[in-house]
Amino acid sequence: MSQVETGKKVPDFSLPASGGETFTLSALKNKILVIYFYPKDNTPGCTNEAQDFRDLYPEFSGAGAEVVGVSRDSQKSHDNFVAKLHLPFKLLSDSDETVCKLFDVLKQKIMYGRKVWGIERSTFVIDEKGILRHEWRKVRVKGHAEEVLGLVRDL
Fold first, then answer.
1. Most buried of the four, 47, 75, 103, 104, by CB within 10 Å?
2. Alpha-carbon dihedral sign for residues 19, 20, 26, 29
């Protein structure tokens, strides 16, 4: 069950980020945060999603928002993915699944006939005060970044 609820303050968290940095939610001052969770670096859907957020990043930034992506991949994997796609935003490594559990994005999936736990593609918008304003679950990539940008502009 999710520990975050729309309209409530999101608990502070820190995660290792691409570029050897650490991302801490409370350090993000006066910015809206778009945090998107995705299954795995260098897979087709995740690549398309990252490219969509990359291509719209100047508009997110202009609207006062920061974008970060989260998966269970390592920092090294994230660094390679960022370099390959020229991403202007950080990817966060949640290898111990702490933040994935906080947002309740781990779901049981069937892969090659076996049940496995994986990240359900999800996006959350947190306002400048740390309040969760909107969430999307079971995201379909096509058109999603544009939809998120529309909501950010309305905040």
1. 103
2. negative
Report the 10 Å Cβ neighbour count for 123.
25
Q: For the chain, what is the mean pLDDT?
A: 94
Q: What is the pLDDT of residues 59-108, one digit of tens each?
A: 999 999 999 999 999 999 999 999 999 999 999 999 999 999 999 999 98
Helix axes 44-62, 75-85, angle to 10 degrees: 70
Query: Of 46, 68, 119, 125, which residue is the catalytic one?
Result: 46
Give catalytic status of residue 100 as yes or no.
no
Strands 65-71 and 32-37: parallel
pLDDT at 11 over 90: yes
What is the model's pTM?
Answer: 0.94
What is the identity of the amino acid at 76? K
> How far is CA 113 from each of CA 45, 109, 116, rounded to the nearest angstrom?
21, 9, 9
